Amino acid sequence: MFNSFIFILVYPVLFLLYYLIPSRFVTARNAFLLVASYTIYFYWNAGWPLALLLVTLITHVAAIVIDGRAKTWATHNRKWLIVIGIIFAVLPLAVIKYTDFILSTITSLFSNGETHLAGLNWAIPIGLSFFTFQAVGYVVDVYKKKIPAERNLLNYSLFVSFFPSIVAGPINRATSMLPQFRENNRRFDYDKVVSGMKMVLWGLLMKVVVADRLGMYVDTVMPQYMNYSGITCFLASVAYSMQIYADFAGYSLMAIGIGKSLSFDLAENFCRPYFSISITDFWHRWHISLSTWLRDYIYIPLGGSRCSKARNYFNILVTFLVSGLWHGANWTFVLWGGIHGAAQVVEKWLGLQKSQRKGLGRLLRITVTFIVVNFAWVFFKMSSVSDAVSCIGRMFTAGGGVFYSSQLDYCFVGLAMLILKDIADEFYPSRFKFFDNRYIVVRWVSYLFVLLIIMLSGVFTQGNFIYANF
Amino acid sequence: MKKFFVKALLFLALMVAGDFVLGSVFDMWFSKMTDGSVGRNNYICNSMTEDILVFGSSRARHHYDTKILSDSLGMSCYNLGQDGCGILLSYGRLMMVMNNHKPKVVICDISGYDIEKSDNIVQIHALKPYYSKAPELSTLFHDVDSTEPIKMMSRLYRYNTDYVHNPKALFKSASKVKYKPDKLFGYKPIKEKFDPMKIRKSREDGPVPEWNVDSLKITYLQRFVDCLGDDVVTVFVASPFWYGRKQYDVSLIEDFCKKNNIAFADFQSDTLFVHNNSLFVDGTHLNVHGAEIFTNKVVDLVKSQIESRKLTK
User: Fold this and answer.
1) Structural domain total, chain B
2) Residue A180 and residue A321: Cα distance in Å, rounded?
3) What Rg do the C-alpha atoms of chain A give, in angstroms?
4) Residue A65 belongs to domain spanning
5) Of A131, A160, A186, which marks where a domain is finished?
């Protein structure tokens, strides 16, 4: 993980070795990155690279077969090919991630509690959902003739396993990444490297100062919500909303930054999501690489919006139920996806997703959207639907004071910096630049100040990224 | 590329210099703090002179009334219990105390928590500012996490999450700094009433949890006992729980104490305490009244140990 001490020590070495290979030896550079990616993945669990390799080989072969038959086979035959290809590609994900969920659901539906179907109980390989979706997207792109199949296994393997994005995305597109891996002269680009390093620094602040610190408060209150007052439960839910944002957006920034430092451009993933004026807008700003993936490979193939209103609403709901299920094999995630889907249906029905208000109207809509998103996160966080419902119920019914923890003190400076930066970027995009200031003194003092806050308030026990679990 | 590396090296040099300068300011600031949790740590690590020392987790801190112990045994007493911490912190603190002074009696409150696997680095967090002050601490940090000695090269890292404290202390004159024990000598009574909402049913009815024993903690438990030697009266105590059955199987501790010739008393399911709402605040912590009764029981135990030690001599 990018926040681990080992990675902080190892990465400069990787960086140096990568640029020591002359840029004209593109195969050697790619081979080096592939070995590094698999080694890092192997470091977590020796068995996991097998799943990665399996998905890579299945989709590589499927795409070549589909591409090879592009001119000679009839459309319906190629449809069968893509269906078979996708089924095989998704099989490791389906078996490893969803078997236990399906069996437990069957048990609870059809048995009286006496029978229990034993599940696999396997550890889910980190990033399995991410690299599977990325690989499936590539096969569909080849099928749709957006790109030709990549015949170079080295380049394709690197596309699936590229270490900056393997843990939790962004879910990159083959159309954007494969040409970069093929590029012959990836020279050292000073501006790009420096810009990448800045992203890593800010992402690290978001993760270790804001997310991990807030996480300590959230993990004290939410699993034991029954012991806390309603206001504390609500505060913990808001803290979780900020935690998951700082955690995932922080991770994404670090991933994109590390990619940039190696002269690659990964997909953008966040754009200040808590300033969204509707749930529809939220999904244009939150986990952008997933929402565009779902749009292109689920929503549009279902018919998108070019159909009847009822069918369109159905398409939205199905897309977000899939999104929920993608996040985790639990009904809490399905419900979370359902809430987001239903909210967008309501917005579309009322014509709210298109209106562009300013001033107080905008503020009101930002607030309402945040509240809906915040309550939906409770389902995302809790281990069961009944716990989530009880926790929300407690927010409205249980009296008492606020439980305060010193963890909130320690994240205060980082959280304030994050909020102020997001406000500045959203409302004054060309002002208040510290990392990109034209004076070197301001830039360097800003870097040092952020480092100081990280050293004094960061959590250095290498907390996992929340989205790495998906 | 050359421009990048020159600037990167310059930035690195600035970082190191900044870390040194600010770290030195923090060193000075912390050494002048006499109140709050830092003041308590400074007292424990620099000026402790009490004869009876109580070690353990929050259960130690809330269960052992230092006034009763010192009045009944005729010796001064300090409670070093710390919320969420166990034997690793106890060992580190004992090392710091032994730099200046050797106690006469050591009471170590122990439960399964103390030797179970957990986040060890969090447990010894309070020792970070004193890292370079006792060689045993650097070994302890290294044993807990082999990357810690590298992290500790940063002086600022030693003050991670410890900086929100009294800024006035920074401007105190060094000659006026005198560490003092707090009023209750480390003991922290809980005056709240019993809250049945805080009772976990699984701990009442479920099976006795099996320990996921942390071998590092066992090693440090042994080191803790070894450095006390034979001339210190050492007593291990498992203090009471509200729950109706033993919360932990203590046979491993019993064997350890037998092997080291140390007295061990298990109050986990003492009938005087079990299900007695008037003596607890929750399932694991006694209230001030419960602590008073329990401390008197510990006094009897320590007295008997002192007597038997005299007879043996």
Assistant:
1) 1
2) 33
3) 23
4) 24-186
5) A186
By Cβ distance, the residue of B1, B4, B151 closest to A5 is B151
The CA-based angle A412-A415-A418, given to 5 degrees, is 150
Q: What is the pLDDT along chain A (470 residues), one digit of tens a residue?
A: 777 888 888 999 999 999 999 988 999 999 999 999 999 999 888 888 999 999 999 999 999 988 877 667 666 677 888 899 899 989 988 888 888 888 888 887 776 666 666 666 777 888 899 999 999 999 999 999 899 999 999 999 999 999 999 988 799 999 999 999 998 777 899 999 999 999 999 999 999 999 999 999 999 999 988 888 899 999 999 999 999 999 999 999 999 999 999 999 999 999 999 999 999 999 999 999 999 999 999 999 999 888 888 999 999 999 999 999 999 888 999 999 999 999 999 999 988 876 667 788 889 999 999 999 999 999 999 999 999 999 999 999 878 888 888 778 888 889 999 999 999 999 988 888 899 889 999 999 999 999 999 998 898 876 777 887 77
Is the residue at A254 inside a domain? yes
What CATH number does the domain containing B38 carry? 3.40.50.1110
Integer Cα distance of A177 and A155 in angstroms: 10
Tell if the CB–CB gap between A455 and B122 is shorter than 8 Å: no
- Cβ–Cβ contacts within 10 Å for residue B275, how many? 12
Chain-chain contact of B157 with A460 (C-beta, under 8 angstroms): yes
Q: Which residues contact B282 (CB under 8 A, 6 or more apart)?
A: B194, B195, B198, B199, B242
Is A258 found in the same domain as A117?
A: no
Cross-chain Cβ contact B156/A461 below 8 Å: no
Told to judge if A340 belongs to the known catalytic residues of this protein, a careful annotator would answer no
Do A374 and A349 belong together in one domain? yes
Q: Do A53 and A29 reside in the same domain of the chain? A: yes
- Answer whether residue A466 is part of any domain: no
Across the interface, of B3, B15, B159, the residue whose CB is closest to A456 is B159
CB contact under 8 A, A448 and B15: yes
Q: Look at residues A141, A166, A186 and tell me which one is the last residue of a structural domain.
A: A186
Same domain, A209 and A353: yes
C-beta neighbour count of B155 within 10 angstroms: 20
Residue A337 sits in the same domain as residue A320: yes
Q: Do A247 and A215 contact (CB within 8 A), yes or no?
A: yes
Q: Is residue A342 part of a domain?
A: yes
Query: A430 and A287, same structural domain?
Result: yes
CA distance, residue A239 to nearest chain B CA (Å)? 19
Q: Are residues A278 and A179 in the same domain?
A: no
The boundaries of the domain holding residue B265 are 2-312
* Yes or no, beta carbons of A461 and B122 under 8 Å apart: yes
**Sign of the Cα pseudo-torsion (A375, A379, A385, A388, in order):** negative
Interface A-B: count of C-beta contacts within 8 A: 51
- Edge-to-edge strand ranges of the sheet holding B52-55: B77-79, B52-55, B105-109, B233-238, B263-266
Are B194 and B287 within 8 A, CB to CB? yes
Q: Is residue A463 part of a domain?
A: no
**Res B201: pLDDT:** 64
Chain A hits for B159, Cβ within 8 Å: 456
Beta-carbon count within 10 A of A432 CB: 13
DSSP annotation of A206? I
Domain shared by A219 and A151, yes or no? no
Q: Which residues of A touch B (CB under 8 A)?
A: 5-6, 9, 19, 188, 190, 193-194, 226-227, 406, 409-410, 444, 447-448, 451-452, 455-458, 460-461
Interface residue of A9, A232, A456 to substitute, partner B, most B CBs within 10 Å: A456
Closest approach of A459 to chain B, Cα-based (Å): 8
For residue A6, the chain B residues in CB contact (below 8 A) are 147
Indicate yes or no: CB of B19 within 8 angstroms of CB of A455: yes
Split into its structural domains, chain A has a count of: 2
> Which residues of chain A have a CB within 8 Å of the CB of B14?
444, 448
Nearest to A82 by CA among A66, A70, A61, A96: A66
Least CB-CB distance to A461: which of B119, B154, B164?
B119
